[in-house]
Amino acid sequence: MKTDKTMTCRRFREQLDELLAGTLSDAERRSMEEHAAACEACAAALRDARRALDAATPHIEITPPAGLRERILEAARRRLAEQGSEPGLAASAIAESAVAADLSAAKQNAASGATARRMKMQPISTSPEQAADRNEAAASGQPRRPVRRIVGILSGAMAAAVLVIAALTLGFNTPARAARNSFAQAIVAMNGVRSIRIELHIRTDADENFDYTNPLDEPVPHTIEAIYSPQLLWRIEKPGRKALYDGKHTYLWFDTLREGEVLPYSPGVAGMLFQLIDPGQLLSFEEQLTRSHDGSRYTLRREGDTLRLTVHSPAQGDFSQSDYMRNSSVAESDTRREYRFDAASGRLLGGSITFLAADGRERTLLEIDRIEYDAPLDAATLTALPEGITWRELTQPEAATSRLAGIDAGRAARLILDAFATWDTEILDEALSAYGARARQLLRSRYAGATVVECSAPVRSGNYPGLFIPCRLQMADGSTEELHLALRNDNPQRSWVVDGGL
User: Fold this and answer.
1) How many CA within 13 A on the CB side of residue 446?
2) What one-character-per-residue DSSP string does 261-301 give?
3) Statement: the pTM of the whole predicted model exceeds 0.85
4) Residues contacting residue 67 through CB under 8 Å, at least 6 positions apart
C-alpha cells in the first residue's frame, strides 16, 4: 500500500480529534487512514478514540426548562445594572447570543454527564487553532459549530445556564481557562521534539503494575524513554517490572519471575505512565479535563521565568459499593497535581502529584526528577530485549471448553477457590491464564489445599472494569487469609479470569 511519508505518528495523534470531528480535507483524511493501515499503534489509538467517542456521544435530546432564557437575560441585566452600566440593546444582544450558543451546545452534548468516571485511554488532543477559535467565539458571544469531544461535554441545559451566568458575572478569564491556555501552549511546545527521557519517583511496589500507587510505600525510581520519529518507540522501567514497544509488539516482563508477555500494541500495560511517554498527551488530557467539570480546581501563578499550574482533583471512580480501590492509584485518590512550565517556550519543566488524606495530611506520590528533550536515544538499544526471559503470547480460553463462562462472578469465584483444595488444573489453568508458568507455580505452593470459609457478594470499586469478591480462606497450614479476588470477563469468550487479589 502506498502511504504518505509525511504522516508521522506524532502528526497522526495531533490530528486525531479533527479526523473524528470530520473537519479534515479529503487528502488529509486519506493520509491518516493510510497511515493507520500501516501502523498498528496509531490504528489502536484510532479504535480506542472511536469507542470512547461513541460512548460519550449523547443519544437523547434535552429541552431547556420553560423560562430559562428569560431568567438568564434578567440575571445579566441585573448584573450590568449593579456595575453601573446601562443594560441597553447591545448588552442584551450579546447576552442573548451567548445564551443561544450555550443552550445549543448543551442540547448537542447532553446526557453524557451520566458517565461519572474518566476514561483511561489515549486522549484526543486539541490544536491551538481550535482552542483559539473557541476562545474567540466565547469572547464574542457568537454561536460556534459544536465539535464532539471525548471529555468535557456539558451535562445538560442547566449546566449551560450556570456557565453562561458565571461567564457574564466573572468574565472569561477564569482559572480553568488560564490553565487550559497553559496546557495548550505546552502542547504546541512539544511539536518538533524527536525524543525524550524522563526520570521520576513513584510511591509504589516495585513488582506491581505501573498504575499502582500507595502513599505508605517508599518512592521507587522509574525511567521513561521514547523516540517519536519516524515511528513511535518507547520503554518504561522500574525495579521488578519493565515494558517496551518496538513498533510492532508490546513486551512486558518481570525481573523476579524471569517471565514476560508478548502482546499486540497495548499501551495499557504502561498504565498512567503512558501519558508521560509523550507529555503532549498528558497535557492534552489535562487540557480536556478543564472542560469536564469533574470537581477539579485550578490555580496558575508566575514565579520569575516559570509558570506554576496547580490542579486539585477528587478521587475518580465508583466507590458506592466498596472503598477497596480508593487510594490505590493516582486517579483513584484525592490529589494535588503541580506542573512547572517555561514561561517563554511553554515547555514542561517538571511536576509532582501529592496525595491528600482526609485528615489533612499530605504525601508526594509522584515526583518528576528530570526531563531531557531530544535525548540521544538509540532505537536498537531502546527496543533491546533482555536475555533469560521466558516469553509467552497471551491467549484467551476457548468458549467451547470454558467452565467459567455464562455464570455470574460469585459462582465463578466459588468454582475457582474450591479448585484450590485439590488444585484442579482443568479450572485453574483457565482461571489463571493471565499468570505465567512460574507465577502459577508460586500460587500453587501457597494456595494448594486451601478451603473457602466464606465469600461475600461481588462489588465494584474505583475504576476497575471487573468485580471484587471478598473472601476468607483457611490455608493448608491452618492459618486464615482474607483477600479480594479480582475477576473480569471483558474478553471475547466472556469467561471469568483472575486478574489480581492473590
Assistant:
1) 11
2) EEESS-GGGGGGGHHHHSHHHHHHHHHHHTTT-SS-EEEEE
3) no
4) none
